[in-house]
Structure formats: C-alpha cells, structure tokens
Amino acid sequence: MTTSTTERPIVRPDLLAVLEDGGYRITEPRRHVIAALDMKDEGFTAEELCNELTSVGRATVYRTIKLLQKSGVICKLAMPDGAPRYSLARVDHHHHTVCVRCGTIGEFKHATIERLLRAVSQEVAGEIVGHRLEVFISCTDCKDPVRWPVDAEFGHRH
Amino acid sequence: MTTSTTERPIVRPDLLAVLEDGGYRITEPRRHVIAALDMKDEGFTAEELCNELTSVGRATVYRTIKLLQKSGVICKLAMPDGAPRYSLARVDHHHHTVCVRCGTIGEFKHATIERLLRAVSQEVAGEIVGHRLEVFISCTDCKDPVRWPVDAEFGHRH
DNA sequence: GCTTTAATGATACTCTAGTATCAATTAACT
DNA sequence: AGTTAATTGATACTAGAGTATCATTAAAGC
Q1: Under 8 Å CB-to-CB from B121, ≥6 apart: which residues?
Q2: Is the four-CA dihedral A64, B77, B62, B6 of positive or negative sign?
Q3: Helices (H), A71-108
Q4: In chain A, which among 55-84 make CB contacts under 8 A with chain B?
Q5: What is the pLDDT of residue A52?
Q6: Within an 8 Å CB–CB cutoff, is residue B124 touching chain A?
Q7: A72-111: b or e for each residue (b if 16 or more CB lie within 10 Å)?
Q8: Residue of A80, A96, B115, B124 with fewest CB within 10 Å of its CB?
Q9: B120 in contact with A at a CB cutoff of 8 Å?
C-alpha cells in the first residue's frame, strides 16, 4: 500500500471536475477516495476502500461511492454470487469482463450487443429499458483460486 | 390465492423426476413448493414463497429452492437493484427479460449472444467461463409503478 | 410393519451492505 | 475574516437473504 491517507492526494482534474459539475464540494475525504480508486485496475468493494482509507470515515466512503456512481465515474456490478463490486469507468458505454479468480474488471464495447437488443425487442412484448451484461473470465495466467464460481447461486452459464 | 397448502398438491411428474434423479426424497413439503412455483409466471422471491406456503417451514422453502436451483429447475437472477429473484426455467439455455414494473420474467434464446461471446473472446486476455445477460423491459400495458428503476444502484443502461 | 436415514420446522443466528443520526467541522463565497 | 450550508465521522441501526441447530418426523427399502 503506497497511498498515505494523511497527506493531500493528487487527483486527476477530470475526476474533480465531476464533483464541481454536480455542485458538490471538493473536500479532503473525497480527494482521498478518488485518489484511491483511481489507482485501482481491479474491482473493489466498498469495505476494501474503507480499510485502505483509514483517514476517511466509513460513511463518507459509502457516500462518496454513491455520489461517483451517480455521476458515472464508477460502475457498480455484481459478481457471480451477487456480491457488489465497483470499478472505475474508463470507457463511456461499455460492459464488463470479470475475472472470477482475481476479480479484475475489464471493459469492452461491442456493437453486437446493440444488434442483439434490437433482435430481442422484436420478440418481446414491451419496451426495453435497460440491460445487464457481464462476461465472466478466467484471466490469462491467473494464479488465484476461483473466488466466484459461475455455477454457484445465479445460473450464469446461461 | 388458490393453492391450499394442506391438501396434497398435484405436481408435474417431470418436476418430481428431478428430485428422484438427484437422489432426493419426494416429500410433502417439496411437493408444495414445486406446485407453488409451477403456477407462477412472474418471478418470485424466497420470502414470497414462504408467505404463500404457510404449511411449509421457511428453512425448508429455502432448502428446496436451493436444491431446485442446483438441479436447473429454477433460475436465480438479480433485479436491477441486485435483489435476487427466482423463476421457473422452461427453456433449456436462455436469458431473461425482466419487467421492471411487475417483475414478470420471460425467457429468450438468441444466437447473437453466442456470436457476441465469440467476438469478445478474441479481445479478451483469458478464457470465458460464463456470462450474465438480463434484458430489462417495461411490459406492454403494464400498469404497475416502476419498482426496479434501471438507473438505480447498478449501472444498467450500459 | 420396522428400520434407517433423510428431511423437516421452529427459531436463533449471521453476514453483507449498507443507511440514519447528529454534533462537530470545513469548503466556498462574500 | 466571517458566515452559512454542505460535509464529515463515530456509531448505532436496519434490512435482506439466507444458514445453523437440533429435536422430531416421515420417506424408502426391506
């Protein structure tokens, strides 16, 4: 762990801009939360972030996560067992690949999903208002044990 | 509510066969659970089932749900807010349409998803081990208020 | 019918993922 | 520097979705 939580963290201006745009104040705790999640390329849980950011209160971490989520800065997604996990949104409209071993979350955009939705909309008696697509992978050379088996709980091989 | 929970329910033989095949006993409580969920074409929660089946204990309802899920008889899926919901599996390999108003769960099969996965597998550094796809709809003439907005919590319009 | 072993039910418990409260603090604006 | 409203943090609380326990009951096979 390299991030000190006492000194003022350096935060990407575009992430701070999100706060400004939303009419939110730029505070020390929020700087710390943003700095911490910006360093991550794996997914993370809210509790993990709490444990790392010892100088920021738990409630504030949760509040900031929610705020950033509403602003589109981070995505909330569900692991195979339904456990929530967050990741920084880098691409605009995208879906996620999730390693069921190490929890690393990747992003991809694909035109095919739009085609799929158009096709489904023909068959469906109603209006499509959203969708959820997650692709579970086992990333190359991953040495971790499987933490989120896809056949547990939710029927994911469908 | 037409299902009495005291008299012996009539259960589709193919659903009972699932129990036999798994080496499980065919018991009265299990008959009742199966009969109840077979009558549903909307999704349901475990608690809802518990409340309907007053003659069956809560633990048994949960145990039976888990058993049937493992046997592939019912699917567990997540609503936009992450809340689990079950539905009887009618088609073999399929995905779900979920009405965010009334909670009705439909099934669809589509070849495009296989194409999509093949395309994604080219781009991804790892092996695809599963996926999750849910299409959220507002079903035709649905009069219910929106119970599961797609923009709450999880980023579902992605 | 008897035996054995699985299954049940009442209940208490657990765990996760938050939200609520509210006095103390602090960012932003003047 | 002073004002004010947003924000914070410590902590308690909640809700949902199950799981554990264990004495009692009831299927299945003989």
Answers
A1: B127, B128
A2: positive
A3: none
A4: 69, 72, 75-78, 80, 82, 84
A5: 95
A6: yes
A7: ebbbbbbbbebeebbbbbeeeebbbbbbbbbbbbbbbebe
A8: B115
A9: yes
Say if pTM beats, i.e. exceeds, 0.85: yes
Q: Which nucleotide is closest, CA of B45 to its C1'?
A: D17
Helix, strand, coil percentages, rounded to 5, for chain A: 35, 25, 45
Contact criterion met (CB < 8 Å) for A140 and B125? yes
Cα angle value A42/A47/A51 (rounded, 5°): 90
Q: Quick one: pLDDT at residue A59?
A: 98
Q: What is the pLDDT of residue A66?
A: 96
Q: Distance from residue B58 (CA) to nucleotide D20 (C1'), in Å?
A: 13
Q: Is the CB of B22 under 7 A from strand D?
A: no
Q: Are B57 and B125 in contact (CB under 8 A)?
A: no
Distance CA B116, CA B118 (A): 5
| Interaxial angle between packed helices B28-38 and B58-70, expressed in degrees from 0 to 180 and rounded to the nearest 10 | 70
- Mark B95-125 as b/e (b = at least 16 C-beta within 10 Å): bbbbbbbbbbbbbbebeebeebbeebeeebe
Note the pLDDT of residue A46: 97
Q: Which of residues 30-49 of B touch A (CB under 8 A)?
A: none
